[in-house]
Amino acid sequence: MNFELTQEQQLLKDMVRDFAQNEIAPKAREIDETGEFPIDTFKKMGELGLLGIPFSEEYGGSGGDTVSYSLAVEEIGRACGSTGLSYAAAVSLGASPLYYFGTEEQKQKYLVPLASGEALGSFGLTEPNAGSDAGGTQTKAVLDGDEYVINGEKCWITNAGFAKTVIVTAVTGKDARGKNIISAFIVPTDTPGFTINSNYDKMGVRGSNTSELILEDVRVPKENLLGDPEKGFKQFLYTLDGGRISIASLAVGIAQSAFDAALAYSKERKQFSQPISNFQAIQFKLADMSMEIELARNMVLKAAWLKDQGKKFTKEGAYAKLFASEMATRVCNQAIQIHGGYGYMKEYGVERMLRDAKLMEIGEGTSEIQRLVIARELGCGEKKKAKVNG
Hints:
The protein has 390 residues and is of the alpha+beta class. 49% of the residues lie in helices and 16% in strands.
């Protein structure tokens, strides 16, 4: 077993770290306070090729792998959780379904602008009454001649307010068992009847755009149907499996940033005439934090490697997402504790990291859903009854 990164992967990691620390980190506090989406930062990321890392060059990508992409998410998340979340969503959710399931024409028309950084994409799955139970989707799409007419609403959709296209899931009929057939559609955001509201006031990741989508008789050409209409459910499950790796990477990045801040502070802060890093109580906290971050990182990279090798990674992706997200919350909480009263102040940044980290336990499938996915992969319970999405 070789745990070393390739030369290309290490060079990419170093490049993204330099960019993130110089361009993104200095804006993190302002982004959190204002809630403004860092559109200029994304333009620069597009120019660097970061939005197309895991896609082939023929579609405007960089021809990299999932490991490289995971490293990039970690470094961006280490600098700013908000920017990291929008970056992960743009690639894993906005562009990846087009790459994996789109026709050649769809890839050229919709994927190339996303992978080359000319535009942002978004993925509209969650609804007010269909979160963890994605099979309960109520948005409907009806074929009318050469067009599908879509009606419904989506909530908590990342990047939609700044996207040119949104991939929307909708019910198109019933199967032989009477279950909903869920299909995916490519919907340009300027389509008549498509309304996007970005009015959420969030606890964390405040600079990441989160929107409500309302579709009222939205018409799209039938060629905007993405992938196999009978396998839309399986398609977005595969999309979410990959997305969980990116959320886990983001959690590792946020946790690493909190740990770095706590370690540095512990060496500077003096109590009883010595740095608090000399006290065993603080040392044990830091040791546990460092250990858990590294364990999470290793799980993330294993899941990413499995995906790159074309192997099954559903269970490992859930392992990574579950452990990394809960780890990040623990680490950020301990970072505040090490900072004491200063950690509760916005000036030191660790309170922002805790607020950002909490979403990692909710988005892309809650911790509870990850445990269900893992149990299902272990053969526990009836597969047909397991809820699989968040």
